[in-house]
Amino acid sequence: MLGFEKTYTLPFKYEIPNYISVFLEESSITKRCIKFIKRYIYLTIKRQTTLEIYQILPKHRNILWINLSAPSFGDSLMDLSSRELLKGKNIDLFTTDRIAKIFRDDKRFKKIYSNIGLASKNSYSLVIVDSYSTRSIKAKFHIAPKVNFIGMYGYFNGPEVNRVLFSFHQMNHLLGYPKSESEINSSARSSMSISTSDKDIVNKINLPEKYIAVALGGEWSYRSYQNWSKVIENILKKNFYLNIVLIGSGNAHAISKKIFLQFSNANITNCVDRYSFNQTAQIISQSDILICCDGGLMHAANSLNKTIIPLFARLTPEMQLTDCINAFPLFDDTNVNNIKIEDVIEKYNEAINY
Prior knowledge:
By secondary structure, the protein is of the alpha/beta class. The chain has 15 helices and eleven strands. It is globular.
């Protein structure tokens, strides 16, 4: 049926960690079919179906990458990670205002747009569309209505996958497999650049020369660890003079204040909700280790090649990490709060002795 299997079939020839079987068991065929048909019809209405191609060629020098389907910082870092394989190409990015901020000083993207009118003034030889969602196809139609395009996820929709490996293997596929499976698996990781101005702001904080960072809070309760104070207490028992920097967004205000007051005599710096995502990433880059839950700051640490102790729930570490990441992960099937404090301390000891 018009390639309906594309909604749950990996578009490249190699296997990656995925929950495709789980998705197929838990979602009805009817809903999957309807979503596919709606997307196909929308592509047809916008006169785009004949413009879809399946390979990035040498002649495709000026490329626009549309990234609108990944709402979070972490997802965007993962989905756009394979831009590293497009060396020698001129690549612009069209995304949301929120996501645009973390790529403003990127080494691969030449220009960043979040305004359709500004993006449409340029001439492109190819458009990379993140997925065939209505939002992304609408943006493609208004910016470059007659330009050929390829899809990263395309019609693939629903199943959880390792997004970094998906991005790299799909890009490798679109480029004609210049790299082997093992080359991709051993090197795939997200990346990000920190501007000089953001580095200067962080330098003015006067952080200690050596410290560990602890990321507090979280958007989802099952990925928000509530025992950080106990973890910090146990860490300080071994080395009371250790420098600890607390980081996180607005949802970590309460717990950061509690920890800061509880350990008022310890060397703790509270940077929660005081700096931008990129500035916080720079704080992570200067740390020795990041202890965190699965989230955007974990992906920032991975992008900056930092050692991490991440706590996972529901999605296994294999679904979020790659071989070249230096991680000491912990996992629970349902909730990170089921992870024992002593297990976190054990991983911390492993990491500092690594």
